[in-house]
Structures are given as structure tokens and as C-alpha cells.
Design goal:
6 strands, alpha+beta, globular, single chain, two-stranded antiparallel sheet
């Protein structure tokens, strides 16, 4: 599994290049209380050949409480997999690795800035498409 650094200090895994489908993502996260997989528009930007409004992407949303985020920060990708409710393999492991990498990049100080927790959005390619506090 390749995890690459992103320019914003986070990390991503390329799920599409690894052959994962929307259906596999839905199946992998069906029992998770903190992960949601949805179909949606993949917005384009100046650096992307994808036109705005073209709908062929899907997103994985991960919503963690502060205590869950801190446990992942102090743990490992396996800790993230346990918290997001997936087995360590396939797409679940890929997303868990991305969640772990992002929590480590935030650190406890970054997590403490959030009122209740952290919500992350990953594109169908596994790139972080947004992180916000809630």
C-alpha cells in the first residue's frame, strides 16, 4: 500500500489506481458508524482535466469524535481501522492509512482546536478533499 504526502501536510492513498470500486467501498464500510460512502460530483479545478459538474466520482466521509481522533493519533493505521470499523485489508486498510496519516499530521494540538471532532472527505482516488472541525 502506497501512502503519498500531500502538499497540505496530509497524506493520501490512490484507491482507484489500486482497483477499488464504489461497490467495494460500500461493502467495506457498511458496518461502520463513522464512515459513509456516497456518489457525487467530482469538482474540477485548474490543475485537473475533469470539468466541474461531471458526475463519476464517489466520496468516503469519516467523522471522528475528538477522543477517537486522539486515539488514532496515538496509535497506528490498525487503530484507525478498528475505530472506523473495518478489517485491515483492501479498501478499508487504504482509508484507515489515510485517516491515520492525517490525524498524525494534525497532532493533538490540531485536534484540540476542534469543538467535538474531525470530519474528513476523501475522493474516489483516496485524496483528501476536505477536513473540518465540527
Amino acid at each position: 500500500m502506497k501512502v503519498a504526502a500531500a502538499g497540505d501536510g496530509g497524506a493520501y492513498v490512490d484507491l482507484a489506481a489500486q482497483g477499488y470500486t464504489y461497490e467495494e467501498a460500500v461493502e467495506a464500510f457498511k458496518d461502520s458508524d463513522v464512515v459513509e460512502v456516497v456518489r457525487g460530483d467530482l469538482p474540477g479545478d485548474e490543475e485537473s482535466p475533469v470539468l466541474r459538474g461531471v458526475s463519476f466520482g464517489w466520496y468516503v466521509y469519516v467523522k471522528l469524535s475528538k477522543s477517537q481522533a486522539k486515539a488514532i493519533n496515538a496509535g497506528s493505521a490498525a487503530t484507525a481501522a478498528g475505530i472506523i470499523g473495518v478489517i485491515t485489508g483492501g479498501i478499508g486498510a487504504a482509508v484507515a492509512a489515510g485517516v491515520y496519516s492525517y490525524m498524525v499530521s494534525l497532532g493533538n494540538e490540531g485536534i484540540d482546536k476542534c469543538k467535538k471532532g474531525v470530519e474528513m472527505k476523501f475522493s474516489y482516488t483516496g485524496r483528501p478533499k476536505g477536513v473540518k472541525c465540527y
